[in-house]
Sequence to fold (269 residues):
Amino acid sequence: MLPVMRADPLRRGAEEWLVANDRFRRDVLARLRAEGPLTASEIPDTAQVSKAPDGWSGSNQVPIMLDLLSRRGEVGIVGRTGRNRIWDVAERAFPQDLAELESTEATAELERRCLQAEGLARPHYWWSGVGKDTGEAAGVEGSTMRFRVDPDALRALDEPDPGGRVAFLNPYDRLLFDPRRLAELFGFTYVLEQFKPKPQRVYGYFAHPILFGDRFIGMLDAEHDREREVLRVNAVHEFDEWGSDEHELVRLELGELADWLGVPVAGLD
Fold:
């Protein structure tokens, strides 16, 4: 990823902000080298030029600086404390004994790994990170879209498939990231209702799509209630009436999720 970072400049406004805050940048890197790993709140804000809060970032300039430095490969995330990211300098955050690929080769390898993660993808820099020549060309019955497919995924089609797996997808899962691909391949449209007024929500504030095999069968509105220490199931929405297999496998998956959180399930009839 380093050659890509070096070849892909930041937007003009971000570059100008970094130049104006060069002393601040050096302060942040020096603090991390001396005391890291650290959260953003543990690093003083010594910015000479501040960006006004814009809805995504507040008045503290440290998170903005860290995000920009991470895009340049100078710092990295090494852990989390709750929702807070823990940062360190790149030389400690990433392995230092890896061979650095030439830019073209590095881009091709990154595109190959993106396709490997997605299996079947539209070639698109932003939506998938997959290049137009990555993997193999593929057509999907009933679709006019052009896709690329991972050759290893094709070979895996000949392997036995136990089927029937249920998964609750995080609303930010990559499978949901390309809405056109999602609609074309799965006949499913996903809207994150977190940003909708409560009266307009259909499935819940942070509802999780339920994937059964290769079909989306419903939505799970559940949350980790930290005050009562339970996995609270507010609602389970079925797109079509489920059979006994779907009900049983969803219950089992909820049990596994609760075990992973270390809490019991509450609110499931």
